[in-house]
Amino acid sequence: MDNLYFLATGGGICFGGSEPLLWSSFIKEFCELCPEGWHFTMETSLNVPRHHLEKVTPYIDSFIIDIKDMNPAIYQAYTGKPNRQVIDNLVWLNTHAKHKDKIILRLPIIPKFNTEDDRKHSRQVLIELGYENFDEFEYVIRNK
What we know:
Layout: H1 2-9, E1 12-15, H2 24-33, E2 39-44, H3 50-56, E3 62-66, H4 72-79, H5 84-96, E4 103-109, H6 116-128, E5 134-138
Parallel strand pairs: 1-2, 2-3, 3-4, 4-5
């Protein structure tokens, strides 16, 4: 039943939440078990060792990549981790993705961490890396 529905609607499955690439072996096996014609999307930060990305890229039709900021200092201040792996994986993905036009890069304004000028700089760096689809938005921080 799911197969007919997915094929009729162009639907599929999105792997997201936490960092799905850390489950690359499971995702690869899952994709191999699914019927031909299903679409798979990966929502990721790309801040993982390359072998995880290499394992699933042949199966993934579209990527939604949460960039945060391309400035290493801003990225580290917000995430607590360097963004070198992110950059290296972006370079690799640019030449290995099934559908480069279906890669969306999320560029938020994060209050107290980056500015509109920072986002413009990030966008320019990503354009120079060969990317063109961006989702720009502002994080909303709600008081608890």
